[in-house]
């Protein structure tokens, strides 16, 4: 994005930063565009964050929405909005739900300071400000914009546990800041249960708030310091209309100069006229104010130092992949990699303390506790990608965090959809299980495997969760006792298969046998008369009436219908092909899915149904492996055709570049794998199904010091098919590569063709894994 910097001091500061920058530059860093996905339903934010950072410091264009109306503002920022309300410190990247937006800060200049955000349609009615996209600049770890009403250049940078603001006020203008503790994303009356703020003797501002949002009873604290001394301040409760002004406000003990508690607090900080930009450093903690202060002290340095350190961290993280591709694709892929490295995020303080799923404070003694696990989405490709490029975090942090959360859970189960240690119970399945199993089977063992397997089995056998008591008894989830039963049956069966694989590798034969049997339960949801996965009643009958295209919340399926879920048995696609009547009938049904005429269907009431190609819905996860299933039916060239169709229609290097929300990196990870030419259809199988590449060249710079290169000859629209494939110079006849192939280093070379190769990888022995064969 281009940047307009009208203020001389900002320009000089930027020049100093450029001169201080290292001589090398990461091609990945320069190619990332954080604005991708900020329009429409992408739900990404453009602001500053470190890799997997605790703080996501980003602009919020509107926090006034309530309940369902918040969907477009799930990440706080919506590209088409004309104003910025402020800059808050916590955001989800691409989630299908909204929350966070904690501790909103906004600069205000001049003599009049309004404490309400105001109406976006009425300039000057509050502290929000208009802005022009031409003045925005966004890079990994850095965001800037000029606030036209406030006459302020605003810059954001972030460290691991801190966010740093830099505000350049117009010469001669009085400088003020608003800190609003009332605002949140997914806001509604009564969401803030309690909040506090205090001014400490050394000038540090601290406080906490307790909210009841997507996650119940969430506590978050902050610590804030300024680069210029305060001239005056005011803490105002808009609930009681009581204000404590100046340094003479009532304190509590000798540590406080001013303090206020309540459910609707907004603060004003006055600095007078400033000779140089104002820097504001903020740290957060889910534990207490002391934790926030310690986090603040743990990352010293001014704005430029923090920005430079985080830039170096992003260059290193993005350097896991070196790639060359057409310009638009290169931007899309590096931005996808960037989005895939934002979560799971740090959730423990620098001293190891964190708030767990039981809402108690715990300590991670020899690892960093992570949270923000959108597991129904990310088990598919996001976590498998991290096992390749971030295995050290996968073992030391991610999996240990999952297992510790299970031990702390009042129900004794692994996280479902967790952030800041708190559980939301959003979506279905127990998909922490495949994340753990896939990592273990890939040799990532920096955790207690026995403890992890115990947690996995506990999650899969907790009867009160999602109809599991009936699933264990009947072999399926009955729809008359549990909603979305058809989806739950097949998803549970896949999770069970991954438990069996890990147990088998650990020599736990009894556990492996139990869960191998359960892995076949997908058949109990498959109706051989109609060829669909359907919901069954407790008496064994399939529920009637049945409509395979119906999508309704709380119905037989989760955010989808029979078209998407009838393909979800990744552990046994060969078994499905036989059940459908063989390769030809399977291919015909896949073609019917992609070619379905949707012109008479209205899915507008279902927010997550986006990116339709017939009944293939790329904007939602159940469809993500479907294009690769042609390869299981012996027609890999059809997979190549579909991937071209999907990539061309679903991804663009523009703000509206996602057809659906990114779901904490899953949409991005799908593109990253697909761009390289292969995809993990079945995490836990140790295989990646070959599709077709969208890069001229890519190198995976593996943490073990080896490199795995992907080379494409003849890439272009005139050559949409894979003519031949070699692995380390030898012809590859199989339609997949293994994780061991990648870890060993080497070269995967594609020769593209104008016409399909209808003999490559078509034999049943050359097809990807299926538990019951072909």
Automatic annotation (TrEMBL):
Span of domain Glycosyl hydrolase family 92 N-terminal: 32-285
Keywords carried by this UniProt record: Glycosidase, Hydrolase, Signal
Cited NCBIfam families: aman2_put
EC id: 3.2.1.-
InterPro entries: 6-hairpin_glycosidase_sf (IPR008928), GH-type_carb-bd (IPR014718), GH92_a_mannosidase_put (IPR005887), GH92_N (IPR041371), Glyco_hydro_92 (IPR012939), PNGase (IPR050883)
EC primary class: hydrolase
Signal peptide span: 1-25
Residues annotated as domain Glycosyl hydrolase family: 292-753
Domain of life assignment: Bacteria
Protein name: GH92 family glycosyl hydrolase
Native species: Sphingomonas oryzagri
Parts of the chain that traverse the membrane: none
Molecular function GO terms recorded: hydrolase activity, acting on glycosyl bonds
């Amino acid at each position: 994005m281009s940047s307009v910097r009208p203020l001389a001091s900002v320009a000089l500061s930027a020049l100093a930063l450029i001169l201080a920058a290292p001589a090398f530059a990461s091609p990945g860093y320069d190619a990332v565009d954080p604005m991708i996905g900020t329009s429409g339903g992408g739900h990404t934010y453009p602001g500053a964050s470190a890799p997997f950072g605790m703080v996501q410091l980003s602009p919020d264009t509107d926090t006034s929405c309530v309940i369902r109306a918040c969907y477009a503002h799930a990440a706080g920022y919506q590209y088409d909005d004309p104003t910025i309300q402020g800059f808050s410190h916590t955001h989800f990247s691409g989630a299908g739900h909204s929350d966070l937006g904690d501790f909103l800060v906004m600069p205000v200049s001049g003599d009049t300071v309004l404490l309400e955000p105001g109406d976006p349609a009425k300039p000057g009615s509050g502290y929000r400000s208009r802005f022009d996209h031409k003045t925005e600049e966004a890079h990994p770890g850095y965001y800037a914009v000029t606030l036209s009403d406030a006459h302020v250049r605003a810059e954001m940078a972030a460290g691991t546990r801190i966010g740093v603001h830099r505000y350049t006020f117009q010469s001669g203008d009085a400088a003020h800041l608003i800190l609003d503790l009332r605002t949140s994303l997914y806001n509604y009356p009564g969401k803030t249960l309690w909040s506090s703020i205090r001014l400490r003797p050394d000038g540090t501002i601290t406080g906490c708030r307790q909210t009841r949002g997507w996650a119940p009873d969430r506590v978050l604290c902050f610590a804030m310091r300024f680069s210029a001394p305060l001239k005056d301040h005011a803490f105002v409760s808009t609930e009681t209309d009581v204000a404590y002004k100046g340094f003479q406000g009532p304190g509590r003990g000798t540590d406080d100069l001013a303090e206020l508690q309540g459910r609707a607090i907004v603060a004003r900080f006055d600095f007078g006229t400033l000779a140089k930009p104002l820097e504001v450093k903020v740290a957060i903690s889910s534990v207490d104010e002391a934790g926030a202060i310690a986090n603040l002290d743990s990352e010293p340095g001014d704005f430029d130092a923090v920005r430079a350190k985080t830039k170096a961290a992003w260059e290193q993280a993005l350097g896991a992949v070196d790639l060359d591709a057409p310009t638009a694709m290169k931007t899309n892929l590096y931005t996808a990699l960037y989005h895939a490295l934002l979560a799971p995020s740090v959730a423990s303080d620098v001293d190891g303390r964190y708030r767990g799923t039981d809402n108690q404070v715990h300590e991670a003694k020899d690892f960093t506790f992570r949270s923000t696990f959108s597991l129904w989405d990310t088990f598919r490709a996001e976590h498998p990608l991290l096992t390749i490029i971030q295995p050290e975090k996968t073992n030391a942090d991610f999996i240990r965090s999952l297992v510790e959360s299970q031990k702390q859970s009042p129900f004794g189960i692994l996280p479902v959809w967790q952030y800041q240690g708190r559980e939301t119970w959003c979506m279905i399945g127990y998909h922490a299980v495949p994340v753990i199993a896939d990592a273990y089977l890939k040799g990532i063992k920096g955790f207690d495997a026995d403890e992890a397997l115990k947690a996995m089995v506990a999650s899969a056998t907790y009867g009160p969760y999602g109809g599991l008591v009936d699933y264990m008894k009947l072999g399926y989830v009955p729809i008359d006792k549990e909603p979305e039963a058809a989806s739950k049956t097949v998803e549970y069966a896949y999770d069970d298969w991954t438990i069996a694989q890990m147990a088998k590798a650990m020599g736990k034969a009894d556990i492996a046998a139990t869960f191998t049997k359960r892995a076949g339960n997908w058949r109990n949801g498959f109706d051989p008369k109609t060829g669909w996965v359907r919901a069954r009643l407790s008496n064994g009958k399939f529920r009637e009436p049945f409509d395979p295209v119906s999508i309704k919340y709380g119905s037989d399926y989760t955010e989808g219908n029979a078209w998407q879920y009838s393909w979800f048995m990744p552990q046994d696609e060969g078994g499905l092909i036989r059940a459908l009547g063989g390769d030809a009938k399977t291919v015909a049904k896949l073609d019917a899915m992609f070619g379905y005429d949707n012109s008479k269907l209205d899915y507008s009431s279902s927010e997550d149904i986006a990116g339709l190609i017939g009944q293939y819905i790329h904007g939602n996860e159940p469809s993500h492996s479907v294009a690769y299933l042609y390869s299981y039916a012996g027609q890999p060239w059809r997979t190549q055709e579909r991937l071209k169709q999907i990539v061309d229609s679903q991804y663009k290097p523009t703000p509206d570049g996602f057809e659906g929300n990114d779901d904490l990196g899953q949409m991005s990870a799908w593109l990253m794998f697909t761009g390289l030419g292969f995809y993990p259809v079945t995490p836990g199988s140790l295989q990646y199904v070959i599709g077709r590449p969208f890069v001229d060249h890519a190198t995976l710079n593996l943490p073990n010091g080896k490199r795995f290169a992907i080379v494409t000859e003849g890439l272009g629209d005139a050559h949409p098919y894979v003519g031949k494939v070699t692995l380390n110079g030898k012809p590859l006849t199989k339609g997949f590569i293994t994780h061991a192939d990648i870890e060993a280093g080497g070269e995967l070379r594609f020769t593209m063709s104008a016409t399909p190769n209808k003999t490559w990888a078509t034999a049943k022995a050359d097809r990807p894994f299926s538990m019951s064969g072909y």
